[in-house]
Design a protein that fits this description.
Two copies of one chain form a homodimer.
Chain A: H1 8-19, H2 27-30, E1 34-39, H3 46-59, E2 64-66, H4 69-75, H5 84-102, E3 107-111, H6 117-130, E4 133-139, H7 143-149, H8 154-159, E5 181-183, H9 190-203
Helix pairs in contact in A: 3-9, 5-6
């Protein structure tokens, strides 16, 4: 695997901005990839916010992929369990994929729990090494709110003793100490959360 | 995971072709992705041809990734062995990754043995479903030539009884019946093989 340099297509696009009919959009940014990792507890709202943001970015002409945790698990990381080691491998593998996409111009949204600080740090370092932008977003919904939402019924199952190892309840979640953005999803709408994230991208020259 | 539509960036780039200083290159094609899977025996020359082609494409401004079998194995598919089932899983996982890249505008070269016809067919179908271009290239170097080259010493080890399950010797290789291109790498130089592949891409509007 080798890094891809900035292409002439990028430069050509920049030139078009000055003369083309679509000057309202910053076309140069559309080929600037980035990984936006949304970490947080189950039912924190990670996936919902990711798809809300994805819709807006796509409308604006960005290439976008959402690496949905469950979908990835059924395919790319099938066979991995929920031990600390397997969770780490899962996050590294998704991080590998995200880096590959983002360094090729894709806005890659990753709504995946990623409970361990060292796993997230390793993913950040991989992006630093390849030169791809990487943003860590903590969807900081309190566990009390998450367990009431309980989108997948996991909190109920844990309470009933049917499952164990639920992140934030009887399995560790190491909250990021200094994420690029912390979203208090329980105090605002999904649209507001996605808008805050969009504003961060714009501030970093990525949207 | 969701498909990415053609972006306005693509159109902007096309416009630039008419006015920019880089009109000698077909910039529209530079954002058209494709997976080029090079299947063949160990030491057939798959990786060498892939990197030769990658260099030319990169020079022309294409986004390019080479999903090198050994490198992928150490990371994305660690833990998989060489049973029929594991080889199938390996190929599907790499196919998943290649599809994701190619539908996002990347020329994705995959020099990976992929010994089973049904595994390769599943990868082709995945690309058809997503709308990404997919080309199957058979690097058809005869086993006698491969075992003489023996880049990784695998044929020698098998002959010495140190390993077993070597594709084309004591493990199956189902040669493609109608690949998009068959390369007789033993009758021509690496440059000639890569040029034949480049010509195919050009013919399909991909280079």
């Amino acid at each position: 695997m080798t890094a891809t340099p900035e292409t002439n297509a990028t430069r050509g696009t920049t030139e078009a901005t000055a003369t083309g009919p679509t000057t309202s959009m910053n076309q140069e940014n559309q080929v600037t990839g980035a990984t936006i990792w949304l970490t947080g507890l189950p039912s924190a709202g990670k996936t919902t916010i990711a798809y809300e943001l994805a819709g807006r970015l796509r409308e604006e002409g960005h290439r976008v992929e959402v690496l949905d945790g469950d979908e990835i698990r059924t395919f790319l990381t099938a066979g991995l369990g929920f031990s600390r080691e397997d969770r780490h491998t899962n996050v590294q593998r998704i991080g590998f994929l995200a880096d590959l996409l983002s360094r090729n111009g894709v806005k890659t949204l990753v709504p995946v729990i990623a409970p361990y600080a060292d796993s997230r740090e390793a993913v950040r370092k991989r992006h630093q090494a390849s030169g791809a932008a990487y943003l860590e977003v903590h969807v900081a919904t309190p566990v009390e709110v998450c367990s009431e939402r309980d989108v997948k019924g996991l909190y109920a199952k844990q309470a009933a003793g049917e499952i164990s190892g639920l992140t934030g309840v009887d399995d560790p979640y190491e909250a990021p100490e200094s994420p690029d953005l912390r979203i208090e999803s329980h105090t605002q709408s999904v649209q507001e959360s996605a808008a805050a994230l969009y504003a961060l991208l714009a501030e970093r020259g990525l949207a």
